[in-house]
Design brief:
With about 300 residues, the chain is mainly β. The protein contains one helix and 26 strands. Among the domains are: about 50 residues, no CATH class; about 80 residues, Hemopexin (4 Propeller). The longest helix is centred in the C-terminal third of the chain and has 10 residues.
Length: about 300
Amino acid sequence: MRYAHLDNADLSGCDLRHCDFTGVQFEKTGQLRAFTVLPGGDGLLAFYQDGTVRRWPFSDESAQTFAQPGSGKAHRVFTEQGGREAILDTERLQFLRRERNKVTGIGYTPLPPGVMPLEIGRQTALVRRQGALLLLRLADGECLGKLENSHAELACLLWETMVLLWSSQRGLELYDMAKAETLCQADVGSGSISALAAHAFSSGEGVAVLGSAEGEIISCRVIHHSAGDSYQIEHSGYAFTEGAAVTQAAADDGGLYIGLSSGKIISYRHAVPDGLIAGKVFHLEIKCSGARLDGVVPPEQRLALLHAQT
Protein backbone atom coordinates (compact mmCIF):
# COMPACT_ATOMS: atom_id res chain seq x y z
CA MET A 1 0.00 0.00 0.00
CA ARG A 2 3.02 2.30 0.21
CA TYR A 3 2.61 5.67 -1.63
CA ALA A 4 -0.84 4.78 -2.98
CA HIS A 5 -3.39 7.53 -3.56
CA LEU A 6 -6.76 6.65 -2.04
CA ASP A 7 -9.26 9.12 -3.44
CA ASN A 8 -12.60 8.63 -1.65
CA ALA A 9 -11.71 4.96 -1.19
CA ASP A 10 -14.06 2.56 0.60
CA LEU A 11 -12.06 0.13 2.74
CA SER A 12 -15.02 -0.90 4.89
CA GLY A 13 -14.69 -4.43 6.23
CA CYS A 14 -11.18 -4.93 4.81
CA ASP A 15 -8.47 -6.81 6.69
CA LEU A 16 -5.67 -4.21 6.81
CA ARG A 17 -3.65 -5.76 9.65
CA HIS A 18 0.08 -4.93 9.51
CA CYS A 19 -0.31 -2.92 6.30
CA ASP A 20 2.32 -0.24 5.64
CA PHE A 21 0.57 3.03 4.67
CA THR A 22 3.76 5.08 4.38
CA GLY A 23 3.18 7.99 2.02
CA VAL A 24 -0.44 6.98 1.30
CA GLN A 25 -2.62 10.04 0.58
CA PHE A 26 -6.11 10.12 2.04
CA GLU A 27 -7.58 12.95 0.00
CA LYS A 28 -9.78 15.40 1.85
CA THR A 29 -11.95 18.12 0.40
CA GLY A 30 -10.35 21.57 0.62
CA GLN A 31 -12.14 24.81 1.44
CA LEU A 32 -15.25 25.25 -0.69
CA ARG A 33 -15.32 28.42 -2.78
CA ALA A 34 -18.51 28.05 -4.81
CA PHE A 35 -20.94 25.45 -6.15
CA THR A 36 -24.06 25.14 -8.25
CA VAL A 37 -26.76 22.57 -9.02
CA LEU A 38 -26.27 21.08 -12.48
CA PRO A 39 -29.06 21.35 -15.09
CA GLY A 40 -31.75 18.71 -14.76
CA GLY A 41 -30.82 18.04 -11.14
CA ASP A 42 -28.04 15.61 -12.12
CA GLY A 43 -25.64 16.69 -9.39
CA LEU A 44 -23.44 19.51 -8.12
CA LEU A 45 -20.46 21.28 -9.62
CA ALA A 46 -18.11 22.57 -6.90
CA PHE A 47 -15.00 24.76 -6.95
CA TYR A 48 -12.38 24.57 -4.18
CA GLN A 49 -9.66 26.82 -2.79
CA ASP A 50 -6.91 24.46 -4.00
CA GLY A 51 -7.95 25.04 -7.63
CA THR A 52 -9.83 21.78 -8.19
CA VAL A 53 -13.30 21.34 -9.66
CA ARG A 54 -15.43 18.39 -8.58
CA ARG A 55 -18.62 17.07 -10.09
CA TRP A 56 -20.75 15.34 -7.45
CA PRO A 57 -23.43 13.15 -9.15
CA PHE A 58 -26.59 12.62 -7.11
CA SER A 59 -26.66 9.01 -8.27
CA ASP A 60 -23.18 8.12 -6.96
CA GLU A 61 -21.09 8.78 -3.84
CA SER A 62 -17.84 9.27 -5.77
CA ALA A 63 -16.68 12.59 -7.18
CA GLN A 64 -15.22 13.29 -10.61
CA THR A 65 -12.24 15.59 -10.02
CA PHE A 66 -10.84 18.07 -12.55
CA ALA A 67 -7.96 20.51 -12.59
CA GLN A 68 -9.18 24.09 -12.75
CA PRO A 69 -7.56 26.83 -14.83
CA GLY A 70 -6.51 29.61 -12.47
CA SER A 71 -5.95 29.80 -8.76
CA GLY A 72 -9.29 28.82 -7.28
CA LYS A 73 -10.55 32.38 -6.79
CA ALA A 74 -14.11 31.55 -7.88
CA HIS A 75 -16.66 33.92 -6.35
CA ARG A 76 -19.75 32.32 -7.87
CA VAL A 77 -20.42 29.42 -10.22
CA PHE A 78 -23.50 29.05 -12.37
CA THR A 79 -24.90 27.37 -15.47
CA GLU A 80 -25.53 29.74 -18.34
CA GLN A 81 -28.81 29.55 -20.28
CA GLY A 82 -27.24 27.54 -23.09
CA GLY A 83 -26.01 24.92 -20.61
CA ARG A 84 -22.45 26.19 -20.39
CA GLU A 85 -20.85 26.34 -16.96
CA ALA A 86 -19.03 29.44 -15.83
CA ILE A 87 -17.12 30.78 -12.86
CA LEU A 88 -17.26 34.33 -11.64
CA ASP A 89 -14.51 36.03 -9.66
CA THR A 90 -13.93 39.67 -8.81
CA GLU A 91 -12.38 40.44 -12.20
CA ARG A 92 -14.08 38.40 -14.90
CA LEU A 93 -16.68 35.88 -15.98
CA GLN A 94 -15.08 32.76 -17.50
CA PHE A 95 -16.89 30.02 -19.40
CA LEU A 96 -15.68 26.44 -18.98
CA ARG A 97 -15.53 23.14 -20.80
CA ARG A 98 -15.10 19.91 -18.82
CA GLU A 99 -13.11 17.16 -20.53
CA ARG A 100 -11.23 14.12 -19.24
CA ASN A 101 -9.54 15.18 -16.00
CA LYS A 102 -9.38 18.92 -16.48
CA VAL A 103 -11.51 21.98 -16.98
CA THR A 104 -10.59 24.29 -19.84
CA GLY A 105 -11.47 27.97 -20.07
CA ILE A 106 -13.18 28.79 -23.38
CA GLY A 107 -13.37 32.55 -23.21
CA TYR A 108 -14.12 35.19 -20.65
CA THR A 109 -15.77 38.57 -20.21
CA PRO A 110 -13.98 41.21 -18.08
CA LEU A 111 -16.09 42.98 -15.47
CA PRO A 112 -16.31 46.79 -15.36
CA PRO A 113 -14.05 48.43 -12.73
CA GLY A 114 -15.64 48.83 -9.32
CA VAL A 115 -18.37 46.24 -9.92
CA MET A 116 -18.77 43.40 -7.40
CA PRO A 117 -20.92 40.61 -8.89
CA LEU A 118 -23.39 39.02 -6.47
CA GLU A 119 -25.34 36.62 -8.68
CA ILE A 120 -25.93 35.79 -12.34
CA GLY A 121 -29.40 34.59 -13.33
CA ARG A 122 -30.83 33.35 -16.61
CA GLN A 123 -31.46 36.83 -17.97
CA THR A 124 -30.17 39.24 -15.33
CA ALA A 125 -27.17 39.93 -13.11
CA LEU A 126 -27.25 41.41 -9.61
CA VAL A 127 -24.16 43.50 -8.85
CA ARG A 128 -22.96 45.97 -6.24
CA ARG A 129 -21.23 49.22 -7.22
CA GLN A 130 -20.20 52.04 -4.89
CA GLY A 131 -22.71 51.07 -2.22
CA ALA A 132 -25.64 50.63 -4.64
CA LEU A 133 -27.30 47.43 -5.87
CA LEU A 134 -27.91 47.23 -9.62
CA LEU A 135 -29.98 44.75 -11.61
CA LEU A 136 -28.55 44.44 -15.13
CA ARG A 137 -30.00 42.71 -18.18
CA LEU A 138 -27.41 40.26 -19.53
CA ALA A 139 -28.40 40.71 -23.18
CA ASP A 140 -27.45 44.37 -23.42
CA GLY A 141 -26.28 45.48 -19.95
CA GLU A 142 -29.28 47.80 -19.45
CA CYS A 143 -29.92 48.70 -15.82
CA LEU A 144 -33.40 47.44 -14.86
CA GLY A 145 -33.31 48.78 -11.34
CA LYS A 146 -31.09 50.42 -8.77
CA LEU A 147 -31.15 50.53 -4.98
CA GLU A 148 -29.01 53.40 -3.68
CA ASN A 149 -27.20 53.24 -0.34
CA SER A 150 -28.22 49.64 0.21
CA HIS A 151 -27.48 48.35 3.70
CA ALA A 152 -28.10 44.76 2.60
CA GLU A 153 -25.27 42.50 3.71
CA LEU A 154 -26.45 39.67 1.43
CA ALA A 155 -28.58 39.68 -1.72
CA CYS A 156 -29.77 37.17 -4.32
CA LEU A 157 -32.15 36.90 -7.27
CA LEU A 158 -35.61 35.33 -6.98
CA TRP A 159 -38.19 36.40 -9.62
CA GLU A 160 -37.40 38.55 -12.66
CA THR A 161 -36.84 41.99 -11.10
CA MET A 162 -37.43 40.81 -7.52
CA VAL A 163 -34.51 40.15 -5.19
CA LEU A 164 -34.12 38.95 -1.61
CA LEU A 165 -32.08 41.17 0.70
CA TRP A 166 -30.81 40.38 4.18
CA SER A 167 -29.40 42.76 6.78
CA SER A 168 -28.98 42.55 10.54
CA GLN A 169 -31.17 45.67 10.88
CA ARG A 170 -34.13 44.64 8.69
CA GLY A 171 -33.91 40.87 8.47
CA LEU A 172 -35.09 39.29 5.22
CA GLU A 173 -37.01 41.36 2.68
CA LEU A 174 -38.36 40.91 -0.84
CA TYR A 175 -37.56 43.98 -2.94
CA ASP A 176 -38.73 44.84 -6.45
CA MET A 177 -35.79 46.53 -8.20
CA ALA A 178 -37.91 47.84 -11.08
CA LYS A 179 -40.56 49.44 -8.83
CA ALA A 180 -38.05 50.46 -6.11
CA GLU A 181 -40.41 49.00 -3.53
CA THR A 182 -40.17 46.62 -0.56
CA LEU A 183 -42.90 44.01 -1.05
CA CYS A 184 -42.62 42.22 2.29
CA GLN A 185 -40.23 41.77 5.20
CA ALA A 186 -39.63 39.27 8.02
CA ASP A 187 -37.41 39.26 11.07
CA VAL A 188 -35.27 36.27 10.12
CA GLY A 189 -31.71 35.48 11.13
CA SER A 190 -29.18 37.15 13.38
CA GLY A 191 -26.03 39.20 12.86
CA SER A 192 -24.01 36.10 11.96
CA ILE A 193 -25.85 35.17 8.73
CA SER A 194 -23.13 34.27 6.21
CA ALA A 195 -24.97 32.80 3.19
CA LEU A 196 -28.22 33.43 1.34
CA ALA A 197 -29.76 31.64 -1.65
CA ALA A 198 -33.21 31.44 -3.24
CA HIS A 199 -35.13 29.37 -5.77
CA ALA A 200 -38.38 30.02 -7.64
CA PHE A 201 -40.61 26.97 -8.12
CA SER A 202 -42.80 26.52 -11.18
CA SER A 203 -45.80 26.65 -8.83
CA GLY A 204 -45.14 30.35 -8.31
CA GLU A 205 -43.82 29.96 -4.79
CA GLY A 206 -40.24 30.71 -3.79
CA VAL A 207 -37.88 29.43 -1.12
CA ALA A 208 -35.03 31.21 0.65
CA VAL A 209 -32.27 29.53 2.64
CA LEU A 210 -29.99 31.32 5.07
CA GLY A 211 -26.89 29.94 6.81
CA SER A 212 -24.90 31.29 9.73
CA ALA A 213 -21.30 31.27 10.91
CA GLU A 214 -22.43 29.04 13.79
CA GLY A 215 -23.85 26.39 11.46
CA GLU A 216 -27.52 27.34 11.67
CA ILE A 217 -29.70 26.79 8.58
CA ILE A 218 -33.02 28.58 8.18
CA SER A 219 -35.49 28.12 5.33
CA CYS A 220 -38.39 30.41 4.45
CA ARG A 221 -41.25 30.21 1.98
CA VAL A 222 -41.85 33.28 -0.17
CA ILE A 223 -45.55 33.27 -1.01
CA HIS A 224 -47.43 35.35 -3.60
CA HIS A 225 -51.11 35.93 -2.78
CA SER A 226 -52.59 36.59 -6.21
CA ALA A 227 -55.95 37.74 -4.85
CA GLY A 228 -54.51 40.88 -3.29
CA ASP A 229 -51.26 40.87 -5.26
CA SER A 230 -49.34 40.74 -2.00
CA TYR A 231 -46.33 38.78 -0.78
CA GLN A 232 -45.41 37.05 2.46
CA ILE A 233 -42.22 35.54 3.92
CA GLU A 234 -42.96 32.59 6.21
CA HIS A 235 -40.44 30.63 8.28
CA SER A 236 -40.61 26.97 7.20
CA GLY A 237 -37.63 25.03 8.58
CA TYR A 238 -34.57 25.00 10.81
CA ALA A 239 -31.50 22.76 11.07
CA PHE A 240 -28.06 22.83 12.66
CA THR A 241 -24.80 21.45 11.25
CA GLU A 242 -21.96 19.99 13.31
CA GLY A 243 -20.75 23.51 14.09
CA ALA A 244 -18.91 24.27 10.84
CA ALA A 245 -19.69 27.70 9.40
CA VAL A 246 -22.08 27.88 6.45
CA THR A 247 -20.21 29.54 3.57
CA GLN A 248 -22.37 28.76 0.53
CA ALA A 249 -25.98 27.88 -0.21
CA ALA A 250 -28.03 26.80 -3.24
CA ALA A 251 -31.55 25.56 -3.92
CA ASP A 252 -33.50 23.84 -6.68
CA ASP A 253 -36.70 21.83 -7.10
CA GLY A 254 -35.08 18.87 -5.33
CA GLY A 255 -34.07 20.61 -2.12
CA LEU A 256 -31.55 22.86 -0.42
CA TYR A 257 -27.76 22.48 -0.49
CA ILE A 258 -25.47 23.91 2.19
CA GLY A 259 -21.71 24.37 1.78
CA LEU A 260 -19.65 24.34 4.99
CA SER A 261 -16.23 25.72 5.90
CA SER A 262 -15.08 22.09 6.35
CA GLY A 263 -15.57 21.51 2.61
CA LYS A 264 -18.71 19.40 3.01
CA ILE A 265 -21.91 20.02 1.05
CA ILE A 266 -25.07 18.73 2.77
CA SER A 267 -28.39 18.31 1.01
CA TYR A 268 -31.68 18.97 2.81
CA ARG A 269 -35.30 18.37 1.94
CA HIS A 270 -38.46 19.87 3.33
CA ALA A 271 -40.76 17.58 5.28
CA VAL A 272 -44.03 18.65 6.87
CA PRO A 273 -44.26 19.09 9.82
CA ASP A 274 -40.65 18.18 10.63
CA GLY A 275 -38.98 21.01 8.70
CA LEU A 276 -35.54 20.42 7.21
CA ILE A 277 -34.19 16.86 7.08
CA ALA A 278 -30.55 16.24 6.19
CA GLY A 279 -29.90 13.98 3.21
CA LYS A 280 -26.78 13.11 1.26
CA VAL A 281 -23.37 14.52 2.26
CA PHE A 282 -20.85 15.32 -0.49
CA HIS A 283 -17.32 15.15 0.92
CA LEU A 284 -14.04 13.48 0.00
CA GLU A 285 -13.13 11.12 2.81
CA ILE A 286 -11.84 7.61 3.20
CA LYS A 287 -14.35 5.04 4.50
CA CYS A 288 -13.20 2.06 6.60
CA SER A 289 -16.06 1.07 8.88
CA GLY A 290 -15.39 -2.39 10.31
CA ALA A 291 -11.86 -2.61 8.89
CA ARG A 292 -9.23 -4.49 10.93
CA LEU A 293 -6.33 -2.14 11.68
CA ASP A 294 -4.06 -4.02 14.10
CA GLY A 295 -0.41 -3.33 13.39
CA VAL A 296 -1.01 -0.67 10.72
CA VAL A 297 2.00 1.65 10.30
CA PRO A 298 2.97 4.45 10.49
CA PRO A 299 1.05 5.46 13.65
CA GLU A 300 -0.33 8.72 12.19
CA GLN A 301 -1.91 6.84 9.27
CA ARG A 302 -3.43 4.28 11.63
CA LEU A 303 -4.86 7.16 13.66
CA ALA A 304 -6.38 8.66 10.48
CA LEU A 305 -8.01 5.32 9.65
CA LEU A 306 -9.31 4.91 13.20
CA HIS A 307 -10.79 8.41 12.97
CA ALA A 308 -12.50 7.47 9.68
CA GLN A 309 -14.25 4.58 11.44
CA THR A 310 -16.22 6.92 13.71
